[in-house]
Write a structure and sequence with these properties.
By secondary structure, the protein is an all-alpha fold. The chain is built from three helices and no strands. It is 82% helix and 0% strand.
């Protein structure tokens, strides 16, 4: 995700608590979705779709933070 911002992501995860929370929740959702899709965790299509939408929203929020931080640098 966002390979062009790899270094900035690493820095923001330690320096920006808001970004770190977004990043952690995004990874948590990714793991939950993978478990649901593989059958490890039982879930219906609606539950998976809901988590995917939340994950996408988090990705959008992280992108906004990354763009602002890159412009400030």
């Amino acid at each position: 995700m966002f390979p062009e911002y790899r270094d900035l992501i690493s820095r923001l995860k330690t320096e920006d608590a808001h970004f770190a929370r977004l990043f952690e929740r995004h990874n948590q959702l990714d793991h939950e979705i993978q478990n649901m899709e593989s059958g490890v965790t039982p879930a219906d299509a609606f539950a998976i779709e809901s988590l995917k939408k939340e994950k996408l929203l988090l990705k959008d929020k992280m992108y906004v933070v990354l763009r602002k931080a890159a412009q400030a640098a």
